[in-house]
Design brief:
- This protein has 388 residues and is an alpha+beta fold.
- The protein has 3 domains: 105 residues, PAS domain (Beta-Lactamase, 2-Layer Sandwich), CATH 3.30.450.20; 76 residues, Signal transduction histidine kinase, dimerisation/phosphotransfer (DHp) domain (Helix Hairpins), CATH 1.10.287.130; 156 residues, Heat Shock Protein 90 (2-Layer Sandwich), CATH 3.30.565.
- The protein is 51% helix and 22% strand.
- The protein contains 10 helices and 12 strands.
- A 5-stranded antiparallel β-sheet has the order 2-1-5-4-3, with helices on both faces. Strands 7-9-10-12-11 form a 5-stranded mixed β-sheet. A two-stranded antiparallel ribbon has the order 6-8.
- It is elongated.
- The protein starts with a helix and ends in a 5-residue tail after the last strand.
Length: 388
């Protein structure tokens, strides 16, 4: 009995030792599970898990904080309530097709966040298996890629704008430079023939063509600097009436060639707070545009009305006007179409794009009112000093 008792005692001691080891292992397993769960909960990605029936049964803390919804609301197919309507079918079809084939998937869709804003999500999903290689469902991680998406779309827009711009420049630079080259050759020919009476007229044509090319290149330089974010922006207080006077004086020779009267109703000391160089470019382009589309003997009127927070400027002409279907396209490079002036003046429409960007940059607005056959009015606002 003593031996049997001792063997029993030893066996009990061994079992207790094994049991203690098992308890320690269970504690370690439990702690490991808690650790991994905490990692999943705190992981910066939005993590989800689905069962064999394709319904989701887990969303981590990051997901719930992003959507602002409870686990009960997201459970099963509840999470699809936050999908953008335009992305719903694509998202569900992609998930179901991959699930049925047990394949990993990558998709992008828009999902509503806790503020009610749709954000672009990049979702990586893959099948996961038990230790015995039994298929259990899917697990996925999602990332907010809204800023990346916006940058991609912006890059696409810039590339399209660049291609369109090069097309415009290649087309419209051709005309003035052809005139310069052609009439320069003719002037040399007339000078050799000592036919000096025509030289002055030819020189004037060359000068006009050179001014057109210079204005185009100036606008191109400004536009490229603006698009690349390299154009300095230095808003200041200044009297805009002085710039109107300077610009009007600069374009007066062009107005005289077409016998167009320019009436400047801007009162002295009309102060605004804006970037002087940008405003100068806006005025030069709008006034040149008005002269371009005004018939010989026409009239251009410049006026301004001040309110509490801003000054509204209007440059009106009694020219050919703009068709209604083209008005909304004037400030878009994608739809911009060059139009010849009343005296066959060429242009790219780039000047109006600059006007829009520069006025927007200075916290103003610009719009057009026009009727075919009666003229156009370009109206823009600038903040009064201290209001920007």
């Amino acid at each position: 009995m003593d031996n049997q008792a001792n063997c029993l005692i030893e066996r009990i001691a061994e079992l207790e030792k094994e049991n203690l080891i098992l308890k320690h292992q269970q504690v370690e397993i439990s702690e490991a599970k808690e650790l991994y769960l905490k990692i999943f909960e705190e992981f910066p990605a939005l993590i989800w898990r689905s069962r064999l029936d394709k319904l989701c049964d887990y969303f981590n803390k990051t997901w719930l904080e992003f959507t602002g919804r409870t686990f009960e609301q997201e459970f099963g197919n509840g999470w699809t309530e936050g999908l953008h309507p335009d992305d719903f079918d694509f998202c569900v079809q992609t998930y179901v097709a991959a699930f049925d084939k047990r394949e990993s998937f990558l998709m992008e869709y828009r999902m509503k966040n806790r503020f009610g804003e749709y954000r672009w999500i990049r979702d990586f999903g893959r099948p996961f298996y038990d230790l015995d290689n039994s298929f259990l469902g899917y697990i996925g991680s999602c990332y907010d890629i809204t800023e990346i998406k916006h940058n991609e779309l912006r890059l696409i827009e810039l590339i399209a704008s660049k291609d369109k711009l090069f097309s415009i420049i290649a087309h419209d630079l051709n005309s003035p430079f052809n005139s310069i080259v052609g009439f320069s050759e003719l002037m040399i020919e007339k000078a050799n023939e000592k036919n000096y009476s025509s030289v002055n007229e030819i020189a004037k044509i060359i000068l006009d063509s050179s001014c057109v090319a210079m204005n185009l290149l100036s606008n191109l330089l400004s536009w490229s600097q603006m698009e690349m974010g390299r154009m300095p922006f230095n808003p200041e207080y200044f009297d805009i009436s002085t710039i109107f006077i300077e610009t009007t004086t600069l374009i007066q020779p062009t107005a005289e060639q077409k016998s167009i009267q320019i009436e400047n109703k801007i009162s002295l000391k009309t102060q605004v707070f804006a970037d002087r160089k940008m405003v100068n470019t806006v005025l030069r382009n709008l006034l040149s545009n008005a002269l371009k589309f005004t018939e010989i003997g026409g009239k251009v009127v410049i006026s301004a009305v001040s309110s509490k927070n801003e000054v509204t400027f209007t440059i009106s002409d009694n020219g050919v006007g703009i068709p209604k279907e083209k008005i909304d396209k004037l400030f878009s490079i994608d739809d911009n179409i060059s139009t010849l002036g009343t005296s066959q003046e060429v242009g790219t429409g780039l000047g109006l794009l600059l006007c829009k960007e520069f006025i927007d940059k200075n916290n103003g607005k610009i719009r057009v009112e026009s009727n075919e056959g009666t003229g156009s009015s370009f109206i823009f606002t600038l903040p009064i000093a201290g209001q920007l």
